Known about the structure:
The protein is 36% helix and 21% strand. By secondary structure, the protein is of the alpha/beta class. The relative contact order is 0.14. It has one domain (2-287): Ribokinase (UDP-N-acetylmuramoyl-L-alanine:D-glutamate ligase), CATH 3.40.1190.20.
Amino acid sequence: MDLVFRTARIPAVGETVLGEGFATHPGGKGANQAVAIGRLGGRVSFAGCVGDDVFGDALRQSLRDATVDTEHLLGVKGPSGTAGILVDAEGRNLIVVAPGANSAVTESAVDEAIRTILPAVVLAQLEIPLVAIEAAAKAERFVLNPAPARPLPAELVARCYVLTPNETEIETLTGIAATDGDSCDAAARALLDQGAEYVVITLGSRGSYLASPKGGMHFPAPNVEAIDTTAAGDAFNGALVMFLAEGREIGNAVALANCVGALSTTRLGAQESMPNREELRNLAGNQY
């Protein structure tokens, strides 16, 4: 569950500032990504854990409201995962996550979900234990959103059909700051050399950078009036996976995912901000 504080500016270390509003929103990277797919009309199943608290009930219902299959969403004792989020007047954010029930996701639960669902593409994040992520990586097409950022075993990188770090995460993974086209390419190459088939670096308002062994390409983001960037990366990842599952070429999937991510910044909240397919068509135009 996201606990969101709106403030004119993010406080410095040791500083207290007055907020301008507070709200709770269903969240979690994997859940946000699943809801993004559901809102776009895609078929999606979610595997994970929620706690036996009021947040757990709300998180489960939010997924169902977005037509996400929750057969493999398990309930465990203890608190659900929560995130404290500060959002400033420019829509920028600072986030801390308490994993809670996310830490209870097991290898066997993921194995069972994949065996039962037989998905076209599996998407995972780093909010769950590494053994569960490695189980997800057994899928034929595995997409990893390496967030929250942490170093990854080379063998896990090698299993990735697509790896989708943002600017902070790519620097954690490679030691290279992705500040321009050349540095984006160098950082992506470091992961391609470890065996990833594609690397997509999300660059916020600058769009995204797609790299493969054949070369790299920058995809600019559409111009929108952003007010909250909290779940833009999740919107992007969910959309990217959905379009890949639908059989779209990866460049087109990245371009459309850029549009979905941009649209999500024009509304407050995480899951509430995810656009539908009509909104995407209107923004994407002939890219759709």
